[in-house]
Amino acid sequence: xxxSVTKKRRVLTAVAGAALLASSAAIPASAADGxxxxxxxxxxxxxxxxxxxxxxxxIVDDNGKLWxxxxxxxxxGRVDPETGQVxxxxxxxxxxLPGGQNKGPDGSIWFVEAxxxxxxxxNPETLHIDTYPFPWGNIGPINLPAxxxxxxxxxxxxxxxxxxxxxxYFALIGLNIFGSYDPATxxxxxxxxxxxxxxxxxxxxGPANTIAFTEAIGNKIALFDIYxxxxxxxxxxxxxxxxxxxxxxxxxxxxxxGETLTxxxxxxxxxxGKIEExxxxxxxxxxxxxxxxxxxxxxxxxxxxxxxxxxYIMQGTFTLGNQVxxxxxxxxxxxxxxxxxxxxxxCDLNNTVPGxxxxxxxxxxxxxxxxxxxxxxxxxxxxxxx
Length: 386
Fold this sequence. Notes:
It is a single chain. By secondary structure, this protein is mainly beta. It has a 4-stranded antiparallel β-sheet, with no helix packed on it. A hairpin with a 4-residue loop joins strand 27 and strand 28. The longest helix is centred in the first third of the chain and has 23 residues. The radius of gyration is 22 Å and the shape is globular.
């Protein structure tokens, strides 16, 4: 064979090898074993018996059991992390559709019913569920022969959060109002959200004495002061962001939020109102690790700080993603963990157990978790009652 041809083949082989190495280097080496930035790999519990139940948020009860609202399944799912046993409890309201949840002062689980136009309370010990219909926008209850009472209405709540005053706060998308319920007195209160058709979706404890919530349609982040009852709204600089998740920083200085449709996360400095945005696509290192297993776009949603001081972000909740983002606010380093289940749609997460992040998978139909280091006190970011 002519020496020139042999040399040409060697050159081509070397170029091809270099290209292969470059492409593999585009994905972090640790992605192969499912760990990034000291976190992972993601491990999953068995799926829930009810197919397509759409579990979302996770609460760790006082006995260490994991609970999640099964939105479409109209049930409450439980996982025993010690044994892996999975079980379900149906809602008494056939039209309930449980949404956002929080643990109350007595250890019970309070949740909203998106189509049930009500609050619900689950006793983790007895599995008994009480229903508290909203005094506004209700077109129920409906009584049908041989069936439980069906309560429904036009409120459409998606999330809730306890305030430092012990009241449970929520927003009603259908009525564009912000409301509260006092479990101690049974008193309801309502407040009109300043922006019409604001589309309030996610809600969390905010900085100082506030409850923070996202206005997905209004493209704003809002704070409600539980004592003065005043609203403060911040317009997101990027139009059409559709904010879908938020959390306060451990030092109570910032409020972080996800811009679902523009693949960014933002933060508001509480003292000054200054807003910064971080483009996740620009921060990503090379190619996403979930090619062919999920939507590769971040589409950030709900988020929580981990005990390692990093911000963990649910990605592709409504767009068939299967990654959890990891953002370091100090270095701006951004990594991604991949769920074993393809197209799992990770929904919401719990950070209250040091060294763990628990979350549920909307379309994966299960609860998952991963381990993280314990280096920082993040207790300020926990819900009021854990």
